[in-house]
Amino acid sequence: MTEQARDTEALIRDQIAKHPVLLYMKGTPQFPQCGFSARAVEALSQIGRPFAYVNILENPDIRATLPKIANWPTFPQLWVNGELIGGSDIMLEMFQNGELKPLVEQYSAAPEA
């Protein structure tokens, strides 16, 4: 493993540790760059709690390294409390059956009034 790969892995692990709800996505919540990322953002936005994101299109090292760490090949990836929840299909299924909202609310602060 190269030093850059180690640095990238350390950065990813730090991001996951620092942010209770973290979405690795293509684009930004304001301008998603693929339909799957757009649907993931929409589900999280409807929950109404803050979440962090990383635009993997601006971070090719993260884009290349994260699938190896997560053992999950595609994006977006939702991480909650340090654990990979899954991609947009899993997120949408959890959102529709009511499992995603309490999970996100458990780990994400209520918005300021």
Automatic annotation (TrEMBL):
Checking InterPro entries in the record gives: Glutaredoxin, GRX_PICOT-like, Monothiol_GRX, Monothiol_GRX-rel, Thioredoxin-like_sf
Per UniProt, the keywords (alphabetical) are: 2Fe-2S, Iron, Iron-sulfur, Metal-binding, Redox-active center
Annotated [2Fe-2S] cluster binding lies at: C34
Give the protein name, as stated in the record. Glutaredoxin
Q: Where does glutathione bind?
A: K26, R63, F75, S88, D89
Q: Can the keyword Iron be found in this entry's annotation?
A: yes
* UniProt xrefs under NCBIfam families: Grx4 family monothiol glutaredoxin
The record's section on SUPFAM superfamilies has:
Thioredoxin-like
Q: Where is the Glutaredoxin domain?
A: 21-85
Spell out the CDD domains in the cross-references.
Answer: GRX_PICOT_like
Query: Superkingdom of the source?
Result: Bacteria
Family recorded in the similarity comment: Belongs to the glutaredoxin family. Monothiol subfamily.
Gene Ontology molecular function: 2 iron, 2 sulfur cluster binding; disulfide oxidoreductase activity; metal ion binding
